[in-house]
């Protein structure tokens, strides 16, 4: 169709709601905060047939009003025949349209007004008032369009239209989501301003006494004449001014100029994972003694290196990277970004002892990086899951030639000031890694990366860097029959990135005597929360081989939650961590994965629709192995026993305990000791095999004969009541904030019922809405966007979002035959 004709046929007055008036910044101190304002509210949306691309809209099109970020795929039904496949979560893509009507203050007619999209999945095209602004195939990178030449100023409306085409499927190996799934902004600046992602801050020399800080600032002059301006950059620590530097510049008409400045910070407060201290640089541009632009950049001061023998060194201290890989979806919220949802994920990871995040396998939302800066995570920022050679029929490989350079540069410009980022990854399990063409591409990507940032090492996630028969690893090393992955051996990379192959880690210094180690992806252990096989000390490889259909497994597509099931390319959780913790030169690891995610339901296919890899399930409930890591990675005192204690009389049950800060654990059944256990050698858990006897299972950890911790699990009766627990009982009334409410099913004595699977119905009173329900069950086909959900292993989650008014939100949960429960959330 002819898009221009279609755009013009749509009335600019079609959207009565959503009229936005943008005001110029009057106050000096508000200039940088008001330079960019949210453009998320009151969009209209229309979805073409999700299977057949009709690519038409017109005056009769039925639109619905919504706020972005928005993911339309998560609103659909799980579909066995979805073109996205079970790898894509069995949810459909399609082609969607967004439009929004807005006004622009007449006083801004002499300014530059741009629209900023943090991410649109995928193949987005944008028009304003019928004028084509551009296209961006990559769904994960942000982009900006100058709308100024096409805007109406004053009382006349403007209309922006966004076409999002996610109809060509499959285009991802995991669930991508569809739509304007990240934040949208309007930016208004003087014609002389700091450019998009226009600051670059480095700290080349850091000591306890002093840190040098270098600034490179790109100034953009869109005036038709030369301008003489004053540029002042001021460093703040919270609200306290630290230092500033000022410089005069002359910039030509319609030109860009990069200004270099430097300053020193006395006795700097260093950024670390324990204390992620941040500074703020405020860049001001003045014309004729008037400040016309302010631009704020957060940064951190830290010194680090990857050492061949000592691993990762941060501020002179050896730090083991204890990381996880995360996909971009937020479980039942889908791919629509929400800052509080990301923060909750990071809080759960931090509680486990995680200090590192790998952005698998694409540029993340800016909010994730902001939170990692503030919360203290060592981030590996990854650009691509494929290069020119595709992994699925319609993926980014089809756009590689035209777009990869632009996308990589934009990611580097956008992200390079974040102190949490310590590593750039130029690719994940790239097919071309095994040939010289891949080396050629890697050299190009490395040159681009180093052009825009020389302060961080470069890696690629290779599977594996040592090309060998993993099953004969010892024999091969004895014979030295080892070949090096061409990409790993090319000398292009600053760090050798290992995906799996943990058996080879100890030999890294022999194979790569000049390049430090990083485990970019590890483990791939599999579990269903709350399900346990009868025998726990056998290791199972599911599937048997990555390229063979899995025909075995458990009833209901379950996987034992003992740490005993792994993929053939991976390991159990304990196996890889035992190797990593043993050697200083092994800088650290990123586990696949911190959270379950939608799609890629290894080892099963349909009816499974989400992954089993997570240490935490899709709802955010920890699986048992979470506490193994917590006992190893934190200073918390840990004693965790499992499984539950509801079995058949006389059934043999394996009881595991993860513990720390103790010499032994003694287990009791109904007050009778069944023995003491202590970890031997490199053990990470202890085990008892005992017959089930209803009652109380109790564990006591001791050190030097003194009690450290006690934990009990009781046999539960029939489900009788519901218990609601909110992660936060007070949230902001900003139409975005969330309260995550856990539903536990209890018996009449208040004991948790671990095998309950009741369907729970939810209702909400007040100015807010239910935006997600989930149990963490990888096989559930219930909508995440409904008002009911079936519990898994006694638990369910409901997510409540605030409206724009202060008050009370009253959530009620009901289930047939159970006593209902109500909880109140305050919004303010």
Automatic annotation (TrEMBL):
Domain (Glycoside hydrolase family 2 catalytic): residue spans on this chain = 310-478
The chain positions of domain Glycoside hydrolase family read 722-823
Q: Which UniProt keywords apply?
A: Glycosidase, Hydrolase, Signal
- UniProt entry tagged with the keyword Hydrolase: yes
Report the transmembrane regions from the record. none
Superkingdom assignment: Bacteria
Annotated Glycoside hydrolase family 2 immunoglobulin-like beta-sandwich domain ranges read: 201-302
Q: Which residues form the Glycosyl hydrolases family 2 sugar binding domain?
A: 93-186
Q: Does the keyword Signal apply?
A: yes
List, alphabetically, the PANTHER family matched.
BETA-GALACTOSIDASE, BETA-MANNOSIDASE
Q: What is this protein called?
A: Beta-galactosidase GalB
Instruction: List the gene name.
Output: galB_1
């Amino acid at each position: 169709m002819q898009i221009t004709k279609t755009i013009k046929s749509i009335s600019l007055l079609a959207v009565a709601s959503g009229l936005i008036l943008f005001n110029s910044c009057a106050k000096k101190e508000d200039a940088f905060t008001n330079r960019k304002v949210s453009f998320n509210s009151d969009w209209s949306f229309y979805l073409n047939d999700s299977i057949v691309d009709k690519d038409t809209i017109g005056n009769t099109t039925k639109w619905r009003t919504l706020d972005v970020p928005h993911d339309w795929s998560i609103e659909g039904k799980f579909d066995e025949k979805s073109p996205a496949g079970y790898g894509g979560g069995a949810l459909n893509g399609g082609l969607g349209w967004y439009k929004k009507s807005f006004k622009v203050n007449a006083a801004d007619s002499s300014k530059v007004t741009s629209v900023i999209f943090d991410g649109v999945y995928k193949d987005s095209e944008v028009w304003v008032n019928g004028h084509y602004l551009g296209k961006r195939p990559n769904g994960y990178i942000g982009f900006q369009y100058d709308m100024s030449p096409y805007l109406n100023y004053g009382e006349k409306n403007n209309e922006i239209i966004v076409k999002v085409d996610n109809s060509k499927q499959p285009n991802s190996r995991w669930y991508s989501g569809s739509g304007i799934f990240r934040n949208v902004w309007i930016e208004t600046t003087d014609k002389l301003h700091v450019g998009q992602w226009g600051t670059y801050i480095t700290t080349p020399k850091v000591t306890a006494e002093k840190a040098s800080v270098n600034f490179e600032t790109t100034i953009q002059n869109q005036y038709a004449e030369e301008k003489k301006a004053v540029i002042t950059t001021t460093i703040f620590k919270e609200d306290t001014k630290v230092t500033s530097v000022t410089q005069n510049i002359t910039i030509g008409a319609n030109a860009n100029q990069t200004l270099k400045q430097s300053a020193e910070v006395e006795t700097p407060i260093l950024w670390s994972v324990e204390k992620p201290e941040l500074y703020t640089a405020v860049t001001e541009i003045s014309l004729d003694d008037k400040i016309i632009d302010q631009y704020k950049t957060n940064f951190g001061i830290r010194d680090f290196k990857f050492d061949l023998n000592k691993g990762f060194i941060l501020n002179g201290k050896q730090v083991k990277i204890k990381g996880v890989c995360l996909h971009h979806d937020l479980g039942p919220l889908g791919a629509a970004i929400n800052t509080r949802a990301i923060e909750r994920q990071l809080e759960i990871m931090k509680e486990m002892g995680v200090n590192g995040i790998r952005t698998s396998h694409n540029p993340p939302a800016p909010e994730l990086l902001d939170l990692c800066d503030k919360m203290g995570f060592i981030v590996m920022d990854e650009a691509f899951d494929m290069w020119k050679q595709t992994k699925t029929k319609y993926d980014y490989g089809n756009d590689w030639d035209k777009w990869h350079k632009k996308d990589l540069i934009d990611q580097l410009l956008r992200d390079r000031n974040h102190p949490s980022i310590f590593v750039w990854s130029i690719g994940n399990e790239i097919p071309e890694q095994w040939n010289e063409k891949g080396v050629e591409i890697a050299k190009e990507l490395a040159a681009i990366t180093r052009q825009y940032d020389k302060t961080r090492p470069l890696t690629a996630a290779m599977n594996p860097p040592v090309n060998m028969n993993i099953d004969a690893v010892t024999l091969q090393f004895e014979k030295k029959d080892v070949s090096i992955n061409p990409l790993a051996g090319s000398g292009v990379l600053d760090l050798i990135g290992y995906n799996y192959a943990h058996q080879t880690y100890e030999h890294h210094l022999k194979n790569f005597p000049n390049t430090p180690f990083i485990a970019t992806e590890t483990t791939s252990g599999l579990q269903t929360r709350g399900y346990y096989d009868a025998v726990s000390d056998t290791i199972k490889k599911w599937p048997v081989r990555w390229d063979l259909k899995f025909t075995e497994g458990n009833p209901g597509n379950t996987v034992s939650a003992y740490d005993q099931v792994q993929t053939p390319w991976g390991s159990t959780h304990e196996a890889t961590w035992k190797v990593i913790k043993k050697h200083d030169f092994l800088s650290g690891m990123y586990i696949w994965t911190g959270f379950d995610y939608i799609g890629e339901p290894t080892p099963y296919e349909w009816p499974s629709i989400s992954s089993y890899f997570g240490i935490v399930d899709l709802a955010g409930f920890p699986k048992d192995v979470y506490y193994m890591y917590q006992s190893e990675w934190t200073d918390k005192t840990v004693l965790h026993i499992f499984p539950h204690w509801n079995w058949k009389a006389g059934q043999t049950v394996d009881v595991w305990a993860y513990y720390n800060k103790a010499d032994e654990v003694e287990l009791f059944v109904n007050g009778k000791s069944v023995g003491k256990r202590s970890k031997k050698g490199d053990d990470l858990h202890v085990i008892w095999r005992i017959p089930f006897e209803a009652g109380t299972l109790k564990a006591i950890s001791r050190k030097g004969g003194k009690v450290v911790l006690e934990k009990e699990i009781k046999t539960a009766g029939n489900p009788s009541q519901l218990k609601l627990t909110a992660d936060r009982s007070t949230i902001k009334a900003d139409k975005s904030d969330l309260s995550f409410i856990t539903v536990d099913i209890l018996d009449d004595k208040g004991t948790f019922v671990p095998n309950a699977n009741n369907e729970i119905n939810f209702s909400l009173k007040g100015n807010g809405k239910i935006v997600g329900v989930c149990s963490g069950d990888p096989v559930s086909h219930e909508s995440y966007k409904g008002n009911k959900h079936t519990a898994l292993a006694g638990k369910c989650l409901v997510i409540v979002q605030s409206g724009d008014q202060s008050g009370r939100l009253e959530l009620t949960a009901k289930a047939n035959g159970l006593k209902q429960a109500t909880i109140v959330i305050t919004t303010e």
